[in-house]
Every structure is written in C-alpha cells, then in structure tokens.
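Listing 4. Sequential folding, example run.
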Amino acid sequence: MKTTILGYPRIGNQRQLKKACENYWSGKTEITTLIETGKNIRQENWLLQQKTGIDLIPSNDFSFYDQVLDACLTFGCIPKRFESIKKGDFSTLYFAMARGIQTEQLDTTAMEMTKWFDTNYHFIVPEFTIDQTFEFFSKKIIEEYKEALELGIKTKPVLIGPVTFLLLGKEKEKGFHRLDLLNRLLPVYFQIIDELIALGVEYIQFDEPILALDLSDRERKAINNTYESFHAAFPSLKIFLANYFDCYGENLETVLQLPVDTLHLDLVRCSSQLDDILTSKYFNPNTKLSLGLVDGRNIWKNNFENSLRFIKKAVEKIAPKNLFIASSCSLLHSPYDLELETNEKNLPLEVKQWLAFAKQKLEEIATLKGLSSSEEEAYLNLFEENKLANLNRKTSTLIHNKKVKSRVENLLESDSQRKNSFKIRQELQRNTLQLPLYPTTTIGSFPQTKEVRSWRSKFKKGILSQKEYDTLIAKETEDSIRFQEETGIDVLVHGEFERNDMVEYFGEKLEGFAFSSFGWVQSYGSRCVKPPILFGDVSRENPMTVKWSSFAQSLTKTPVKGMLTGPVTILQWSFVRNDQPRATTCNQIALAIRDEVVDLEKNGIQIIQIDEPAIREGLPLRKEEWKSYLDWAVKAFRISASGVNDATQIHTHMCYSEFNDIIENIAAMDADVITIETSRSEMELLEAFVNFKYPNEIGPGVYDIHSPRVPSVEEIEHLLEKAAKVLPVEHIWVNPDCGLKTRNWPETKSALQNLVKAAIKQRVKTLQTA
C-alpha cells in the first residue's frame, strides 16, 4: 500500500508567495526574487512530504497565480489581445492575463475569473476562438519535475485533463463548440507526455474534476477517446485519473472502462462510491484505487476508525499493492500547519485537538498506511489519541446551545417573508430615498492601506487602546465619507476599515466560532483568506456593525448602507462543523444576521446590504441535489432580510458566478437590489437576468476591481449603454463589481470619479430622450 496527495498549498506557511507577488507587482523587487520565493516554497513542500512518508509526491501543483492560468500558458492558449507581449517577458504576459495591464503603450483587460467548482478558490477562465491553435508554450511542468529530481524526488506531475480544460473555458465567438478543439489540443498533451517520459516519469496525474458533473454522451465520449489515445500512444505510462468534490455518478461506467492505471475516489464527499465500484461488473481488480480518505477541504481531524473500515473493505477485493491512501482532493484548500497555532485565546486547546491542517493531514495519511500494515503496533498510540479526540468532540459542552436550537426549531414561514411585494416596497423606497436614475454606489469596502492594517494589528497586540484605535478608524471613515460626497456618489458606505475579512470579522463577534492565526488559504492570486472555524451553535450576543454604520450616517445626509455578510456566505467561507446538517447551521447564522439587520434599521440605516457571493458556489455539483440546497439557502437569506419594514431597502451582492441555472432562485431571494460582476465578461453575465426578466433592481458591475486598470469614462458608458438596451433604466444601479479593499487609493479615486461621470452622462442622455 502506498500514499499520495493530489496537491499541496503553495502560498507558503507565512504567505511568502503573497508578499513576493505583491512586492513584484508594485516594483519593489525584481522578478528573480519572486522566482526564488516560488522555488523555496516548492522545495520545502516536497521535502516535507518526503519526510512525512508520502510515497507519490505531486509536482506542477505549484502556481504563482492559478493552475488553470498555468495550463493556458502551457498549451499556448493565449487570447489575441495579449499577442503584442507574447514574445516578450513571460512574467509580464502571465500577470497581464491574470490581472490586466495598463501602461502608456498597452491597455488590456484581464481574462475572466470564476469559482473552481463549489469552492471559494477562483480560477482564470480559458478563452477559445473558432481558429484556436495550441502549442507547448510554457515548459513549467518539465522544469519543476527536473527541479524535484535534483532533490532526489521522483514526482507525479499534475496536469489538468484536456476535457476539463476545454469544458471550463468559454467560446469567445459563435459557430463552434469548445469540445471541437479537442483534436487540436491533444497533440500538445502528447508532446508533454513524451518529454516527461524521456525524463523517467512513471506516473502522471490528470485532473478531470469535470467527471463530478452531469456530463452529456458527447462529453463522456470525449473522455473515453482522450484516455484511449493516451494509452495507445504511451502504453507504459501510469495514468493517475483524479476526480474530486463528488462521485463519478452517471460517468462511472465510462470511467471504469478507461485504460488508466489508478482511479482516484473522493470518499469524503461521496462515501458510497467505493461500494459502487467494487460491485460493478465493469471494475477491473487490477486497476489501482486511490482512496481519498483525508479531507482536503476542511480542518477536522480524520476519524481513523471510519477510514480503516474503508481500507479494510477495499483490501477484501483488491491487493494492498494496488491501493493508495490519499487526500480527498488537493490540500490547496487547507491551511498549512496547526503547529503554528499557539494563541489559545483565539483557538482554545479543546477545539485545537479536533483539527488537522495540511501538514497534519500528511501525517494522517502516513498513519493510516501504518495502521493498515504489518507495522500496525507502532501506530496504536496515534490511533488511540485520534479516537479520544473524536470522542471528546462528540461530548464537548462547547458545541451545543439549547436556546439556539430551540429558536431554529420554532422558525415560522412568515419569518422568511417581507411584509409586501417588491412593487409596493419599491414605491415606498423611492419616496423615502429620493435617488436619481442610475444611482451610484460601491460594494462596501475601501482600500485597506498598510497603515490601516497596522492599526488593527497594534490594537490586537494591546499597543493601541480601544479609544486610540477608535479615533484612528473614525478619522479614516470620515475621510472616506467626505471623498464619496465630493465625488458625487449617491449611496455611501462607511469603508469597513475596522474589518479584517468579510467573514472572519463576523465570526469574531458570533458565538460558536474559533480562529487561527496562520490558517490562510488561497482565494485567488495573492488574495488569501483565513476562514473562521465554525465548531458550535451560532448566536449573536451583541450588535456587530451598528457602531460604525451609525457613526458614518451621522456624518452625512446622504444614505449610508449598512454592510453585512449573508448566512450562506458565512457558512461557505468558514471551516464548518460536520456533525449536523449544513442547513441547520445556516439557519442559526441567518437568525444572528436578522437580529443585526433589525438593529441597523432601528438606528436609522435605510439601506442594508447582505452580501451573498457564495450562493452559487454552494450549489451541489449534481443537479439532482440542487433543489434541496437552493430551498434552504434562499430561505436562510430571506430569514436574515425579512425583519425590516418595507421602506428599508435590502441589497445583496454576488460576484464571479454563472447565474443562468439558478436565476429563478436568485429572484426568489427577493432582495430589492442585487449587484453582480459583469465588467470582465462585458455584461455577458447580465444575460441570465435579462432572459429571465428579473423583476427587481440590479447593479451590473462596470469596474473590474481585481485589475489595477482604471476604466475610462467611455468604457463605463459603453457598459451602461449595453445594460440600458436590455434593462429598464429605472432599475439600473452603477457600481464596481466587488469591494475595493485590495486596491490602492489613487486608482480607486480615479476609477470612482470616472464611474460617477459616466453615470451622470448616461442619466442626462436618458432624460434628454425621455
């Protein structure tokens, strides 16, 4: 029996990669420093896995920004707008594709970005044209394999499978389907495989998570043809086919007949599939199985007793030499190392004993192998420790709150209903707020400078008193209000300078959460988040946001939005307890947010935004499970929003999601205003709302905040004109596509000034033609 993982975190245990990228982007360091940082992280990861006892260690799982972007460069799938820099400096091209580029010579928008299946990780969306060509452009996979060889480690290179790569992309013009490009793409794979085999590669891991979705016959045929062709061309290659995040489902029959050496199973998300495979008439006992038993997406300690049952069941049908013990998916979604957590105030020892981060997950995999071998006795102490920790969690008094459970059990249907329909509310809100056509606003946060972040750090360390900290935050908040007034923005925000993260901030103020100090995971590029640990019943003991929202509103007569994170997003972006249904946990959070919404209204806040960017992300991968999830997710949002009067305007925000399949459910959320990302897609994502005839008001984002580019007035006008052709003008809001926390002030001010100018020009045009 052997061990493996599908991938390892790449940001560094102290977020070294984030800092190196941002220093390079700002011109503080040269590209050589960034490259060296990446090399150090890769080597540390490989050596740690080797030391821990991982037998088959992955390579090419590292990325400076995103693995799908890396694949685009590997296959030479580079949009034509980057052609002028394709033959120049590689790093300029790479980051221009990810973030856009704006210089005196070149002004080019970034590629689209969306969520990686049902995770909070964002990937760069490949772009395809009818005359698309491919070439082996970036040799990163070769270089990193050689790099590991120099350390004496023979790795398993990881490649996104060709069908997944194509299906995750988008056709940028009509007249073809992206799967039509498969036969053009496969020769590049052959070239890559050929070069790797020449270097002595034994295994290549092909990631095909598209197999977790409902595929058509054509798509399944593409999978079959791809792996038949690989086997025909390279019969000695050991193909490690990896699917994760769900079962193979209806694709299982196809997959079991593929000529692959090893089939990976995510047994955390789909425990039933081992039985399905072992009893299938199509299963070949000589096929190796990789048992994904250690959760790559959550931080709870593995239950060795349960995992050993799976291993025992597999061993009854399959020789141990044909089994791998593995992580369920890449550990990319896990924090680095629990040993770094020494702050018992944030993370009590009782909770800490229930957890395992990426490093500990490696140890769990190695221990499971040991417990399944002839050396079992040497691991029995670890087995007993694991058993005790899991028992302690079941019986802990920290977890359960009878009052919270009772409140959820006694929820009524009326608790999820506004008093009147949108039409009635809209009229009341227009009379109350007196906003112009094309009202302008932002999504919530303003740039968090190093100075602002240092205040929060000093306050937490006790260097600043509460009074000193509040004085600094108040000054920053007032400055932001004055800037917004001077710019002419119609609905203001307080800027969120007191908040570290849109989920962590609320978790810190709610019961049932614990926190790590170094539990960072990558969201996209250099953006890292530190999800709170939701271990127990959730309740709100005191107001969380009223203080700063009320203060901001006291500074101005212009409406200031109260800013909250919605229950589904808090659930999705936390490490969530796995001992009760997620719907139950979500309703607990919804009631806590509801209490905050009511308090904001009582304190004079007339517009309240409840952000739900994770609604789409939480959607199960199989359509048969959608209804159940959407029913409880939409209801949780409505519970959080329905405690206020009709004249109070409820906003929500969603970003980087495809809405077509769930637009009816988004409408059922019944937010008075929804703001969405549409700038990177040139309003393409608006089509779902138009086709559905979305009844409420909508702000299609006209400023891509994930790029350092400053959009021109004309560029924003162009997007607004596109929106005005398909939406009622009285329903259109004007806003960026997301919060501005990660941007700097000069570009933010320029972009928002242009945004307001464009809105005014569009407003005047509309009134002139009325």
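-- end of first protein; second protein begins --
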Amino acid sequence: MSTRLSTGGRLIDRSKPVSFRFNGRNMQGFQGDSLAAALLANGQLVMGRSFKYHRPRGVVASGAEEPNALVGLGEGGRFEPNQRATTTELFDGLTAISQNHWPSLDYDVGAVNAALSRFLPAGFYYKTFIHPRAAWKHLFEPFIRKSAGLGKPSNPGDPDRYEHAFVHTDLLIVGGGIAGLQAALTAAKTGANVLLLEQEAHWGGRAPVDGAEIEGEPAQAWVNRAVETLEAAHNVTLRNRCMGSGVYDHGYALAYERCTDHMPGAAGPRHRLWRIRASQIITATGALERPLSFSGNDRPGVMLASALRDYIVNYGVSPGDRVVVVTNNDDAYRTALAVNDSGLTVPCIIDARPTADGPLPQACREAGIRVETGKAIAGVGMKGKALKSVDICAQAGEGAVLETIPCEAVAMSGGWSPVVHLWSHCGGKLLWSEDNFHFYPDVARFPTSDDGAQYVRTAGIASGAMLTEQVLEDASKNAVSALADLGHPVEAWRPSATGVEEAKMAPVWVMPQGASRAKKSKMWLDFQNDVKVSDVELAAQEGYQSVEHTKRYTTLGMATDQGKLSNINGLAVLSGALNQPIPQTGTTTFRPPYTPISMGVIAGPGTGNTFQPLRKTPMHSWHEANGADWEPVGQWRRPYCYMKPGESREAAVSREIRNTRDSLGLLDASTLGKILVTGPDAGKFLDMLYTNMMSTLKPGKCRYGLMCNENGFLMDDGVVARLDENSFLVHTTSGGADHIHAHMEDWLQCEWWDWKVYTANLTEQYAQIAVVGPNARKLLEKLGGMDLSKEALAFMEHADGELAGLPVRVFRISFSGELSYEIAVPAGHGLKLWEKIVEAGAEWNITPYGTEALHVMRAEKGFIMIGDETDGTVIPQDLNLSWAISKKKGDFLGKRAQERVHMASAERWKLVGLETVDGSVLPDGAYALAEGTNDNGQQNTQGRVTSTYHSPTLGRGIAIGLVLHGPDRMGEVLKFSKVDGSSVEAKIVDPVFYDKDGEKQNV
C-alpha cells in the first residue's frame, strides 16, 4: 500500500496542505507535490486504464516520459484531457479524473478485451475489417469509434488566454540540469545573449536526487549558486516550466511554457508558445531510464527505479513498504539505498548481470540488503489490483521459478538512453553504444546551416557522457565551441565532481525468456498502447522488417509517449527477431513536439474575433475617414467604394470609374501579394512555377505570368519583376499571397530541396499605390524626384528612385487599361505618400476608387480575375491565354496535366465577352441554356457567366463568361437562366470591350 513517509520530501512544504479531488474523491497533499505523488500518498495506485486492453495501470515514471498516469484536468471551459499526473503541479482546488474506462476506474467493462487478447494481436484491425465490408462497417464501426482516442474533448468556452512570443538570442540552451547550467555559466561570462529553458519547475535535473557532488559540495548547493549567478547576469534569461518542443532548420526552435497552470486565475497567459531564432543551440536534455520486460511489468506498483527514488526523495512518498529492485546496471542500487534510508524494506535486489561488485552494490550489501545476481523476475503476484509478490528465475531462462518474494512495489531499471529527440528533429545522426546499450549523437555528422556551419550541439548525458565530471566537462566544452562560432572566445571549465560514475550500464538487453514463455504470460514494451514483446515478434514474422513499418503495425512508440520508454526495448526485440544488430535495425523518426502541447497555445491569441486577425493597409485610417464602404478580401479590409453623403453604392462606383477614365484615379493596392524570390536558382524555380519563361526577364523589366498547380488548373496570376541577376519580386492576388508562398516553400522543401532559392513574403512590408488615368504622369512629375517619361520608364518596366522625397519603386503596369503607375513604398511611409498624392492631385480632381471600380474597369478591358474566371477547374487555354504558355521551355507545373485528353479537348468552354440584347446586367453565375435535357431531366447548358457588371464607360451591362466553342460563335445570341426561372438573351462578343489596341495604357 502506497504511503506518505514521515520524513523526506525535499520539494514539498508539509506546513502547507493542499486539497484536491480525483474522480470525485476529496484528497490532500502538500504544496510542491506533483499530482502523481499526491495520488500515491493517498493510496491511489491505479491511475488509469491502458488503451487497447483496458488493463489497470499505475504511475511508472516521474516526468514527461510517463505513459500511464494521464488524467483529465479541470472543469468546464478549463477542462484539458491527457495531462500527465507526473508533471502536473498540485494546487488547492485541483480537480482531476482518470481516463479510458467505463463505468468506473475500478470496474471497467473494457477489461473484457484482455480476455480476448488472443484474438486481438498486432495488426488485427488490418486483417479483420476487410470482408464483408458492409457487415463489419455497420456491426463494429460504432464500437470502434466509441473506444477510439484517449480521454474526452475539452469543453468549449475556454476562459484562459494563450500567447505567442518571439525572441532572438545568440545561444539557446534546452535543459536546466547540471549540464545546461554549466553551459549557461560558461556563456554568461562572454556577454553573449543566452536563453536557458527547463521543462520542470526546479533546476538541476537528477543530480540533487542522485547524490552527486560538484566542487566538493552537494549538487543542490552548486545548483542554487549557479542559478543565482545566472539570474544576476544581464545577458542571461532563465525560463523554467518551459519545454524545448522542437528544433528546426536555420536555428529556429519552439518552446512551450506553462505559465499559470500551477496557479489558476493568476494574471497572465495560461500557456505561451515561444518562437525562437538562435545563432547556436545546445540541447542538454539528459537521459531517460528504460523499463525491463518481464511478465506483469505493467502492474500498478511496478515503476522505474529512478522514478521510485524521485517519489521518496522529492516527495516523501513510496508505493509500498517492501520494494524489490530489479536491474541490469548499478544505478538502480541508488534506489535501494534511498528506500532503505527512508525506513522501508528492500527484500532483495535482483541483478541480471553475473556479478555486481561496484561501489553502489557494495554499499547495499553493507547496509544489509540482499543482492542476487544472474537472476530475473519471472512474473508478479497480485492480490486484487495490488502487487503482493515477485517470482524469481535464473536470467539464463531455464524456466523454473526459484523463489517467490513478498513485496508491494518493484523498482526496475534497464539502463539509460540519452534524450536525442531535439538533436534528431533537425537532422542530427545517431551512433550506437554497445557498452551502454543506447543511441547517442554522432557529433561528427551534426546539423549545419546553409553555409555549412554547425548550429546545434548536445551537452552532458545527452551527448552520451555518463559520469558527473564528464557531463560538466562536455557541457563546458560544447558551450566554448558554440561561443567560438559566435565570436566570443572563452576558456573551458575543468570541474571536480563525483556521483554518477558508479552508474555502469549493461552491455546486453535483458529478458527472462524461458520463464515467461513457460508461463505464456505477457511482457509489455509500450505501456500506453499495450504493445507486447510477442506483438513485435509477430510483426517481424509477418514481414514487417522496417522499424517504421513495425511501429505502425503494432503502434509501438506512438500516441503521447512517442517511444520515450519503449523504443530501445522494442528495437532490441525486433533486432532479435530479425537476427541482426540494433544499429542495422535503426530508429524511428523523432518528430516535434517532444511532448504534447495544448491546442490553446497553438492557436495563441487567434481565437474569437482574432481567429483571423483583421489586416489593414497603412492607409486604412484615411479610407475610414473618407467614406470607405468596406469589403472583406481574405483577411484584409478594402474599400468597395467611397460614398459621398447621399450617394448610393452604384453612383459612387460610376463616379469613380468615370473620373479615373477621364482624368485621375487612385487605388490602394497594398494588399497585393509581394514575394521575394532570390538565389542562384531563382530563375529556374520561377520557370517551373509559371507557364511562361521568367529566367529570360531582364533586370528592370516586368512580365505577366500564370501559375498552375500540378493538376494543370490555374491557381494565380500576377506581374513578376526582376530586381537583379538573382532576385525577383512576385506579385500575387490579395487573397493568394500566403497560399502561394506556402506553395513555393512546399516545392522547395519537398521536391527541389537542393535548389539554391530563398523566398520571403514581403506583402506587409510595402504599401503599394496605383496612380491611374490620363493625368497620372503629370501628377508624378509634379511630386518630383524621378524621370517617369515614356522613354525613361516604358510599359512593363520598373525603376527605383524618389517621389516627394520618399524612397519608392515605380512599376509601369496597368489593370485598368489606362496610363498607370504602381508605386511601392516602405509601409511606414505609405500614408504620407498617399496624402501627398491626394494633395497634389486636387487640380485634376483626383478620385480614390475601390475594389468594385477596379473590377469593372478590368472587365471592360477583358482582363481575368482569379476567383471569378477561375474556380479550380479552369486552365489557361480556357481563358484564351495560350500566348502566356511558353513553347520554348521543357516543363512547368501542370504542363503534363494540360496535355491529357480531357484538358486538351475542343469541347472545353472558352472565354468570351457577353452583351445583353436589352442592355441589362446578366445575373452572376447564370448558365447559358442549350437544347434538350440530361438523364436527370435537367436543362442542358453550354456556358456560364463568370463576371458581370454595369459599365459606366459603355452605358450598358457587360459580362465575361465561358461558352462552348465561344470564340468561334461571335455574334450568336444565347439564352441565360435567371433565378426566377425566366431567361435573358445575350450576344457573344469580343471580351475586350474598351480600347482593344491598348492606346491609352501605352501613352
């Protein structure tokens, strides 16, 4: 029976009791307790049920690696599932419930799965739910869906606040144990900016618990002094309760900070997601202890030796009065000594090795603790859900039970594995240690930046250093190396330390196969997913020889655990089944986050009204003050038109068009996408993205381009400007900037990863102002600063210079058909330039116009609009844009798709202009009716309207549409459907309604 000890508990304050509830029961702990420790102190050994077989499970670890003790925390809007009891700090009023059972934790109907385990081997779902498909679907699907997942969803209406933070630092250190602290101390001397993260509430890692000494004093005293020194350093930032979640390319990292979980209701965000840019990164993430595989190793009361030691030393709690220790290394002997020192009993230490003669085994013998070498556990005996004994067998595996030892708890240790997840996230390679039976970083094959420089290092046990002195020396050495790359030379520290050196590892993996096979019992590898030794062996037998395939076939190392406890043992079993060494089997891929992070922190401030932040151009306030009638365009707000007092929308749009065509108009075009594409391969890259050639574009020139997806359908268009030999500025539609930038990065990262191309979305970095109309050049000449004559800046050219004393880039392009200049200016100068233009343009009755006038004028010119003329099924050839498809270059995205029979068919609808016979405006989206009906009795169609407007310039309705054989049917009259069931006649005409020869835009 677990109990609170009368002494011990270095992290708790016994003078401050804390009340909490678990499954409706009132319980009590102390300030400083973890929820797992408090549950143990209240006699709650069973904390949850396993996923597949619903076996009763207790806590097995003491940190983020815990696979069993997952609970639902909080109530109402603050409820959060799948929280580790081991890392949840106890606070007054905490409410928790156990998961994955019905109707209760003690009596779970799902436990019947354990009795049916012979019918539910690895991969049973792949084999079972195939035929007959309909019968399985209707019979089993409801039950499968009900049992899927862990926990239950959070309730809506979360009242807490979540935050995203951004930081740049010279050196990021992940891990606040003695290695991380030592690395930070080394860096603090140089003046380099240092950010040190620790996922737990306390600094120092395992060293204070394990009795290490540094510089002749207990590790805790050294840790306290180190933290004080770092807190006083102006260039060092410390963050505890902050997990290093992932490390990515270019020194980018994510961290997850639990700000107020331990004090709900406190001011500030509940969680914070840190987005970090670091010049150098050191991962000092320590190591995790591995379990041993024996029959019943998942029973409540069986836990890692280091975890049991933590509960005794840190919290003054033990899962039982009699603790049997089973190990294959010296480190577990520390637990035996801790149990013995607390006044509890260690009936026996069972060591799989033939001999155990180090200082720690000798200390245990001198303390009167029985040590049995060459032995292993054959199985555990239970009384209800409580552990009552262990059966001992010979490690060689003869199968006979040699002895039964009464006990209430088992502390197991299968050795230690460096935490290499973050190192692996960014491509770091691993080596295998036969001496310590673990993978560790291959520092000769480190992740590098684009220039080949190393930017990620490991420190301490995470590097594979297993001695206290080696840990500190390795941390200091790697910090010196990182600082040297930063230009901050410093000398390494040579520590004097003891403590961990006795923790020798076993050279082989240990499993009592003979006894276990004789009893036909289950030995567990993955506690959370109920993966057994026999499951991995079956996977190998059925041909799943790749470790990645075995992982998915058996679910080994999946879910919230991500293989922290199960990976090495699972690899060992698979390697044994395949009769090959573990390094040949390899490892699965470690992916961020290191441990789960909350959905709330992923969203951050993006909830409610800020789910999609409102984006405003630099001139937004001017528009608002001058009658803007707003229209949503993606996340932007753009003026639909500017209405004067007593003016209707239609009248405002007509006025804006007439004034622009007759004299001078002004458009805020800042929302258009502006993506920088640069690098030696930038031209080649754009040639693949666009249907026409961009690599032949000369610096200072512009070219209109079409972009298709790999299925051949038109996805965006815009003007590309070449800035210099290696740099292009790509303009996209307002709603497409983010999507197109992501599209570029997808191809660069996944397909053309070796091309030397860099992209940056500069959309919000520049304001862009279109000055349009016959008097546009006169206005800009009045502002002064640049020669913008026809000879100096021809159509489809651009130039850098000054206007009205402000730095600008002027593009001679037109979307209206009039003489037009688009002026890009740094966003901070956008409003100032706009106001200067408005002031200078008064003599020409300058008129700002909105999106509707923009659309009408482009339709009058027959220009297409992405989203209007395109719907995801349209190709450039449908829009008579074959001239924009290069005949010279070999390939581009979508080319082969456009050559398919259906895409090249003459029966595809083509772009035409449409004019109603009576001058009215065609309904938007109206279909052109054809003779006859289809098989469903519906009227056949032969085209549709894509854009339709009243044209003030022409004084009638105009439209653009797609019509079967349209370009060949000029002058033909078609009937178009109306919503009320009637129809309206329209004539097929040229889609260019205004200034077909382009004389106005070329003046």
